[in-house]
Amino acid sequence: MLLNLKPMKVTCLTFNPFQENTYLLHNDTNECVVIDPGCYEKEEREELRQYIQENGLKVVRLLNTHCHIDHVLGNKFVADTYHVGLEIHRADEQTLRAVTAYAPSYGFQQYAETLPANFLEEGDTVKFGNTELQVLFTPGHAPGHVVFYNGSEKICIGGDVLFQGSIGRTDLPGGDFDTLITSIKEKMFALPDDVTVYPGHGPETTIGYEKRHNPFLR
């Protein structure tokens, strides 16, 4: 029996003063993965909760591409509300633990930490419903940065590695410019040109466009 499965849906909600892109991935089964929840204010958390409720979604995974403050502000809210454990790369645990110390200096006095329940590794497969995401290890912006790639639908949730016409900053603790460029050229640019990259900030782009036009990668 052939099933007429619809493509995975990618929903982007932009939160916090850093204008961080929070992604919700879901499919025909209504199982949902939340990636990099940046919701901090009550109104932002309600927007996320309302979208999930109105679309009848069941949150089954909570993932971080990396653990800089703007990408983890909503981790505890999602973990507690939907009873899911946080999943990150082990090399970014120190990045995550550091947030508690510096969050107040950024104005996030109410930040509450959630520690990882599971660690992701290069080559792991994240499964939910009828969808699979491949984990690619892409350090440079952060020591434990990963991206999530769906080959059948040519979609990559890219965090802060590659942006439209730009790349992730490397002047934060654990960042390294040469490592980032290597990650982009060996991991991201190994993907087909028509793969859409959904970054942690700003609009989506494609691998082919960045190969041709990104001034940092010529």
From TrEMBL:
Database matches in InterPro entries: MBL_Glyoxalase_II, Metallo-B-lactamas, RibonucZ/Hydroxyglut_hydro
Record bears the keyword Hydrolase: yes
Cofactor names from the entry are:
Zn(2+)
Pfam families linked: Lactamase_B
Q: Which residues form the signal peptide?
A: none
Q: Which keywords belong to this entry?
A: Hydrolase, Metal-binding, Zinc
Domain called Metallo-beta-lactamase: residue spans? 19-201
Q: Does the keyword Transcription apply?
A: no
Known SMART domains for this protein? Lactamase_B
What is the protein's name according to its record?
MBL fold metallo-hydrolase
Provide the species name: Pontibacter saemangeumensis
